[in-house]
Every structure is written in structure tokens, then in C-alpha cells.
Amino acid sequence: MPAPLDIRIIGITGMPEIQAGDDLAALLVAAAQRQGAEINPGDVLVVTQKVVSKAEGRVVRLEDVEPSALAIAISEGHRRDPRHTEIVLRESKRIVRMDRGVIISETYHGFTCANAGVDASNVPGATTLCLLPQDPDASARRIRQGVQQALGVSVAVIISDTFGRPWRNGATNVAIGVAGMEPMLSYVGQEDASGKTLHTTVICVADEIAAAAELASGKVLGVPVVLVQGYPYQPSENASHLALLRDPDKDLFR
After folding, report:
1. Chain mean position to CA 213
2. Is the pTM here over 0.85, yes or no?
3. Other residues' Cβ atoms within 10 Å of the Cβ of residue 145
């Protein structure tokens, strides 16, 4: 039998409050070095969406937003500011469902999630909203390249965000951007322990790594970067979050 995996999950502490234009790769490398956490070839860096969006200037002040008549109508009777609703509508490619003030939408990236990923948590200012990165895969590639240039090691990078899940309570972190690794692991054609051939089993390892990393990053711990060591992912120079999205013709709930 193969040896069991020894996977380590290390939260990188000491990151400063991120500002637009900051070099995330340089900041996380410096924080890891101060902490004594060595980034090795083949490691995975999971970076939370919030700091990526801040560095890329994907932050909006409600004072600068004029709500549409639709946004005002949708917000009536609910606690969300109509200007917040307006930003959700602008970030949505398609509204999937609206009920009791809750908006489930499809973003321009192809994600189906609450409020198009627009969020006010962990952002300074009572009237400031954070949007998803415009191209999370490109964000992951930039961080990966920066780490490689700084340390001379090849790593994988996952941009993570917190999504709800159909049929289950609670939210979990998922991958919204990926670089340097195949995000999916297919068992199709292999035999299980009983000798049965697997026909449909494909595991989204990028989501599993993102979810595991959240155990070390948390929501209120101020740890936006997690180092994952010991997982033997399949390297890829063409990784994309698009591999994680179900084709519309196979989506029974569309």
C-alpha cells in the first residue's frame, strides 16, 4: 500500500492591511520568512479573495453609487442598502433567484453564488464593499510568478472565497482562481477497493485544499494566506477555474 500522506496546513501571520497596488507575492514571502515558514517547491499557497481584491483596487464606496429603480425596489423591506444591491446587480451576469432579500446570481466569471460575491466583511469602513477579482486565475498566476521570482521555487496558488452550498447549511471555502496545478483529480477508469471500475468520480482537489486552508485562516483571525505542504498535486501551466464550472447543459438546476 502507498504511504499515507503527511499534509501540513500553516497560516501565514503578520500580513499588513492590504492597499490598492500592493505586491501580494512580496508581502506574503516576507511574512512567511519572518515567521520561519519555508516555502518549498511543490507547496500550495491559498490566498483569500479579500486581500487579492484589495490589492487590485476592487473596492467600492457606497457614497459613489447611485442606485437604480430596480435596486431600490428589490431592497424595499429588507436590511440591505439599495446602493449595495445596485453593485450586486452590476456584478451579476444573470439573476438565478431572488427571495426575501436574498439574491443568488451568476457572475461574469461563471460562479453561482450569493450577491455576486459582493461582501462588506473584513473591509475597513462602514460603507465599503469588496468585489471579486476581475480575473482570479490571472491573480493567481501573478502571485505564483512573484513567489517564483523571489524564492526560485515553483508553487501552486489558489485564490479562495467562501460560498454557500445547495442542500447543506453553512458555508465553506472554494477555489475561484488557480495557477500551477490541475484543479480536478479524475478517478474515471480506475478500480475501487472492490474491483469496480469508476465511471464518473472526479474530485475537485482545488476546492478541498481551499476548504482545508480555511481551518488555518478563519474569518476573524487576520490570516489571509495559508501554506499547504505535502499534497502531491499534478502540476499544470494551463490551470483555470473554468474546469470547476459545470456545463449549463449538465446543470439540472439551471
Report:
1. 11
2. yes
3. 14
Report the 10 Å Cβ neighbour count for 197.
Answer: 10
- Give the full edge-to-edge strand order of the sheet including 156-165: 8-12, 225-229, 44-48, 156-165, 168-181, 235-236
Maximum distance among all Cα pairs of the chain, rounded to whole angstroms: 63
Residue that is written with C-alpha cell 465511471 in the block: 199
- Judge contact between 128 and 64, C-beta under 8 A: no
Q: What are the backbone dihedrals phi and psi of residue 33, each rounded to the nearest 5 degrees, phi first? A: -65, -40
Domain ranges of the chain: 8-56+133-246, 59-129
CATH of 59-129, one of 3.40.640.10, 3.20.20.140, 3.40.350.10, 3.90.1660.10: 3.90.1660.10
Give the tens place of pLDDT for each residue, 233-244.
999 999 999 999
CA angle at residue 33 from 13 to 25, to 5 degrees? Answer: 75
Assess contact for 254 and 248: CB atoms under 8 A.
yes
- The fourth-level CATH superfamily of domain 8-56+133-246 is CofE-like (3.30.1330.100)
Task: Render pLDDT for 90-105 as a digit per residue (tens, 0 to 9).
Answer: 999 999 998 877 899 9
Q: Which three cell numbers stand for residue 129?
A: 464593499
